[in-house]
């Protein structure tokens, strides 16, 4: 049977070959014209399939269609205390004692169990979360860093799986914004961010919070005033915003895009330290850091052109939106923290997501209140990001600077003083009712009259920020001062190069003084302008000294160093050193 089948197959093949040889060659090259015409007639226009590397970061506009920034939600929180086994056996007073300042590292959270109940001005609402029950359905802890030192705390609520979700969210951030004199900047920042292309925003909601502390024997709810509930970027955030749920998401705690080899390691590395990792970047979804480390390796590899690194790992529309929006809004505290990095599954590209905007639009306020924070020359415009490796390398390329300038022009036309003024007026229909009474009134860091003046001038801060951006492109970039050393009878002083976008020559003038003011009678050395990034000065008597360098380009624009000296205030652009009685030079922080 098998032999007959083989013979049959051989016969079919032989006939096929003979038939092929009998057909003229010209006939094999002739197509059916009617079939071609039919195909052309049926062909429709199709959108090309997008490469995942070219994917824009697009928000889901439907999430915000029902958001009313002028509305007010009400939360009722009953503090119950928990168990030692769950780590929640803490009183409300213990929770509020938590501090997590920048100098303290990451301090373990202090949590307690609560009953969380949304409601209206009268109480919890029937049918809503926790209504009609006395059982704890969530945990509560203080959140934030510098704000943990304030008498008014911000809180995080984590709902149990059995409690359900509030507006699609299980983790809720309640921000008090104790250092925001207006109490509306975060709402303004994230509402306006919804208009910016190439980046996502966060849902926000004004909330009046009532707390009953049963751990202290309380039987009635106390009014804790106004909070802003801000959507927490986490895995659920990615899903709610139609992003890649299983993608990588990191919150920057202190990340300037250096490689940080001693802290950022793969979780499989025997030397991996999760706490050390979190000090730089806090993972929000996965512990697989392979993609992150590959990106940081590339950013710090100066043998590879930054254009190739940008094309491989970043989306220019997203990067320019992140920079332009934060610069235009004067949100300066975004050059090492207060941002997130997101990368979808199966993509090497990383996108910036904004986080925390309660420091925006403050230049007028600094003048009104006489504050010096944020007054440094380099903290406005592109120079604010010059200390970040990625942006330092990127901004040296003219095409990228032009792309940023184009995005800034677009946003400058979109977010005007008139737009901001209208938004502030809307929010004040809610906010004024709280900032004019307890408990928020006594905790404001300004008078009501000053607050009114701040509201009036805030809208013009975008124009100030825009002009500062244009100016920053003309100025040399900031740099770092090195250590002072002694060489026989002279002092050697060195510093970094002040990069200039226009390729003009930059000169440097060095001064040493006995006082941070560098007043005339305090100056002990006043050097001449020079082109070198180092100089020598005569040896000085024992004592403490301050020194600074001013960079100036040929067009007359000047810049100061990144360095800061802290006394009773922050003094920018200088360092200090001590000469001991034995003549030793000690560089001071």
Short description:
A 7-stranded mixed beta barrel has the order 1-2-3-4-5-7-6. Strands 14, 15, 17, 18, 21 and 22 form a 6-stranded antiparallel β-sheet that branches. Strands 9-8-10-11 form a 4-stranded antiparallel β-sheet. The longest helix has 21 residues, at 2-22.
Structural account:
By secondary structure, the chain is α+β, with helices and mostly antiparallel strands. Helices cover 29% and strands 21% of the residues. The protein has a 7-stranded mixed β-barrel. Strands 14, 15, 17, 18, 21 and 22 form a 6-stranded antiparallel sheet that branches. A 4-stranded antiparallel sheet has the order 9-8-10-11. A hairpin with a 4-residue loop joins β17 (543-553) and β18. α10 packs across α13 (398-414) and α11 packs antiparallel against α16 (448-457). The chain starts with a helix and ends with a strand.
């Amino acid at each position: 049977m098998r032999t007959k089948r083989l013979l049959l197959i051989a016969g079919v093949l032989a006939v096929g070959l003979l038939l092929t040889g009998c057909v003229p060659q010209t006939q094999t090259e002739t197509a059916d014209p009617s079939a071609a015409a039919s195909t052309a007639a049926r062909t429709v226009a199709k959108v090309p399939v997008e490469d995942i590397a070219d994917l824009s970061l697009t928000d889901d506009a439907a999430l915000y269609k029902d958001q009313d920034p002028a509305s007010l939600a009400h939360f009722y929180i009953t503090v119950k205390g928990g168990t030692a086994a769950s780590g929640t056996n803490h009183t409300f007073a213990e929770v509020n004692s938590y501090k997590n300042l920048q100098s303290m590292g990451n301090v373990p959270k202090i949590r307690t169990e609560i009953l969380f109940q949304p409601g209206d001005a009268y109480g919890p609402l029937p049918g809503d979360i926790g209504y009609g029950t006395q059982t704890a359905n969530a945990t509560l802890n203080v959140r934030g860093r510098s704000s943990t030192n304030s008498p008014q705390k911000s809180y995080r609520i984590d709902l149990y799986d059995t409690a359900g979700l509030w507006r699609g969210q299980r983790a809720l951030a309640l921000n008090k914004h104790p250092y925001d004199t207006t109490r509306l900047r975060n709402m303004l920042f994230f509402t306006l961010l919804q208009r910016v292309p190439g980046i996502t925003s966060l849902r926000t909601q004004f909330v009046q919070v009532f707390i009953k502390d049963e751990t202290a024997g309380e039987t009635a709810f106390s009014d804790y005033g106004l909070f802003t509930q801000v959507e927490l970027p986490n895995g659920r955030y990615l899903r709610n915003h139609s992003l890649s749920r299983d993608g990588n998401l990191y919150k920057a705690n202190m990340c300037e895009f250096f490689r940080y080899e001693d802290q950022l390691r793969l979780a499989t590395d025997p030397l991996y330290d999760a706490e050390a990792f979190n000090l730089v970047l806090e993972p929000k979804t996965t512990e697989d850091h392979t993609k992150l480390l590959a990106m940081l390796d590339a950013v710090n590899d100066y043998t590879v052109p930054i254009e190739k690194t940008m094309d491989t790992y970043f989306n220019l529309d997203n990067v320019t939106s992140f920079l332009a929006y934060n610069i235009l809004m004067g949100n300066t505290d975004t050059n090492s923290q207060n941002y997130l990095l997101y990368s979808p599954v199966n993509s090497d590209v990383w996108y910036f997501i904004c986080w925390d905007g309660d420091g925006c639009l403050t230049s007028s306020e600094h003048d009104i209140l006489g504050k010096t924070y944020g007054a440094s020359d380099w903290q406005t415009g592109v120079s604010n990001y010059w200390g970040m490796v990625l942006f330092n390398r990127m901004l040296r390329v003219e095409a990228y600077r032009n792309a940023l300038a184009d995005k800034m022009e677009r946003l400058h036309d979109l977010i005007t003083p008139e737009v901001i003024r209208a938004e502030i007026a809307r929010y004040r229909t809610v906010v004024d009712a709280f900032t004019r009474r307890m408990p928020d009134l006594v905790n404001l860091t300004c008078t009501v009259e000053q607050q009114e003046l701040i509201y009036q001038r805030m809208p013009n801060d975008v124009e100030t920020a825009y002009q500062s951006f244009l100016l920053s492109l003309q100025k040399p970039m900031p740099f770092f001062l090195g250590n002072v050393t002694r060489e026989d009878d002279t002092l050697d002083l060195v510093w970094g190069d002040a990069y200039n976008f226009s390729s003009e020559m930059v000169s440097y003038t060095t001064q040493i003084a006995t006082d941070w003011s560098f007043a005339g009678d305090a100056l002990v050395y006043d050097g001449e302008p020079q082109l070198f990034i180092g100089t020598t000065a005569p040896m000085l008597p024992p004592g403490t000294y301050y020194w600074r360098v001013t960079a100036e380009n040929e067009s007359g624009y000047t810049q100061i160093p990144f360095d800061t000296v802290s006394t009773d205030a922050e003094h920018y652009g200088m360092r200090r050193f001590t000469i001991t009685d034995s003549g030793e030079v000690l560089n001071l922080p």
